[in-house]
Amino acid sequence: MQTKLIIVLVxxxxxxxxxxxxRLTVDDKASLWPRASATDKIDFSTRMGRAFxxxxxxxxxxxxxxxxxxxxxxxxTKDLRLEEMVRTCISLVRDEAx
Length: 98
Prior knowledge:
The chain is mainly α. Helices cover about 65% and strands about 0% of the residues.
């Protein structure tokens, strides 16, 4: 009985590992953004905000969340990667400064 319980617990623990390891990366297709969970979107936006905040104070997590949401919902993103969407968001802030 105890062996069966251990097997079930190990199986459940292993089943949750891939879900925690799956994070949005800049290499992912932009078409994944609309289907990603809110937690994944917040995590990705936070990482981008930390990485690019030194370029401009406007480039924070809230900005990236808003910009990526808008960018992903406009047009056809099937061939784009998240990296290209992030670059677009950065260029929009740079264009405002000029």
